[in-house]
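Query form — protein Tetratricopeptide repeat protein

QUESTION: What is the three-dimensional structure of this chain?
INPUT:
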Amino acid sequence: MEEAFALLRPRPDTSVDDRGALADLLARNGRIEELREHAEADGHGPALQRLAEALEDAGDVDGAVEAHRRTEVFRRDVPALLVDLPVRHGRGEEAIEVARRCAERGGGDDCDLDLLAGLCLDLGRPEHGLELLDALKARRGGEEHWEQYGMRLPLMAACGRIDEAVEQSRAHPEGDVWYAAGQVASMLARAGRLEEAVALLRAAPDPDWNRPAPGGYLAELGRFEEALPLLRHHEPPQPPQPLERAGGFGRGGGAGRWCGPVVQPSARARSRASSESTIQSQDSCGSTGVWAKPPAASRPM
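ANSWER: The structure tokens for Tetratricopeptide repeat protein are given below.
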């Protein structure tokens, strides 16, 4: 065993993978202090990540949080990790505060806002989530494009404010376009208001973008003769064009992109779920793919 440690001790030409292998070996053998020293001296993120995992396993949640904070210079998914860690240990209020600070620091980054809104919803704090979104909107000078506004809909629905959400959606500058109609209709459908969801989609411009959705809602209503033509003969339109990063919203320069966290896997994570696919992040919220609504010039009118 000592020979393995000696072989993996970092040298100037040691690869990132080998540095991570040493961290994994130290953690598996319970040599936390040596792992801490290795992480302190390491110029890369894997050792700090492995230290955070080992500290959490040992019950040192605060130490794990601090280790994750220090990986932020290497990894873009740290806000999600910093939120998820206290949630796993029943520290929801702390997680909300971490998410709020991330969103405030990000200046309106969609991924940070989505993380905050989703967390408040999951923790049963929808009203608080709306208050936080209002405060962040005020810091941006009152600006709120549709992707940001749409994050409010599940929170408002959870507060029983569906009618208010529908009215506010209609008043939004983007409230009369296909992607807004689809999101509002989904909120209505989840609340059991299928007839209203169908009517909204049928009245929306460019119905082909949302054509399968009313078919599904009609089927749920038992109106199969109306539903089948929509579900059988739908030919989807061309997918949205990739969003230009320059001029977009947030630190990553993009609005409407998928914001799920993508975590650089440790050896432990790989052994737990070898079939799962992980992606190393290249933008501000852990996503390499960026999809959004079509640019204004090409958007259907």
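ADDITIONAL NOTE: The domain at 90-175 is CATH 1.25.40 (Serine Threonine Protein Phosphatase 5, Tetratricopeptide repeat).
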